[in-house]
Amino acid sequence: MVFFEFKDGSKVPALGLGTWNLTGENGKRAVAKALEIGYRHFDTAEAYGNHRIVGEAIAESGIERKEIFITSKVPSRSLLKEAVIESGKRALDELKTDYLDLFLIHWPNPSVPIKETLSGFSELKEKELIRSIGVSNFGIEELKEALKEGVKIVNNQVELHPSFNQSRLKSYCAEEKIIITAYSPFAQGKDLKLKEINKLSEKYNHPASQIIINWIIQKEMIAIPKSGNEEHLRENFNALEWKLAKEDIDLIDKIS
Ligand SMILES: NC(=O)c1ccc[n+]([C@@H]2O[C@H](COP(=O)([O-])OP(=O)(O)OC[C@H]3O[C@@H](n4cnc5c(N)ncnc54)[C@H](OP(=O)(O)O)[C@@H]3O)[C@@H](O)[C@H]2O)c1
Question: Which end of the chain, N or C, is less packed with Cβ atoms under 10 Å?
Fold first, then answer.
């Protein structure tokens, strides 16, 4: 597994499993299968309603907690300090864990001052209930406001795929040493059909999914593709066994 280091010193596996829509027994089976294949990073959120099945699959795997990286997110309706703390504690209870590796503001909410929200995050961190603090769906202006508070924001999880490469946001985050997590890396399947991606798939003799995952990770971003299908889980996990040439990374950069 490739790891990145956040600016607070924590290490994060560059490939994780997105768990949106993985719910119930089928969802739990997919998480358990992912653990068996080797995934050690899981992206969940209060809004996904699947903390319990993710927690159960992890607990039943017998894999040590410290080997696993768990991200969750506080909903934008819960951004007052006390609500952030309650949401964090609820996530721990539901996931049956003592800490989250990364806790994110799921979406910005302009009606709540960011200082108020971040004070809740800082308290969770002081109590060692979360290890790292991040945001999601933040644009450059929202990040600038947030960074003024002096809290170490290490991650911004945003929609990013070959047909939507967020190049301005990516440059700004690089300047601030904020690692991007690319969500919907396949554009929910649409980018797997792009002609440029399929040409590269033929050239390398590797599936389109692996071309996209490698592009994201070689650009030093985290990829969290979702799959509930064993074959796809394996295919996505095995992406890290090979690399794209620089010229092909540049080619994918030019798609959007
Ligand atoms: N922070 C946010 O606001 C936010 C928003 C959206 C998503 N997310 C996170 O990002 C994760 C991923 O995004 P996403 O679920 O929107 O979409 P995605 O990962 O871009 O695409 C998922 C789709 O691709 C299919 N797929 C996966 N691997 C495949 C493969 N190797 N070959 C062919 N098809 C494949 C899946 O079907 P199968 O299940 O059949 O494999 C599913 O239909 C989410 O689960 C969630 O954790 C975060």
Answer: N
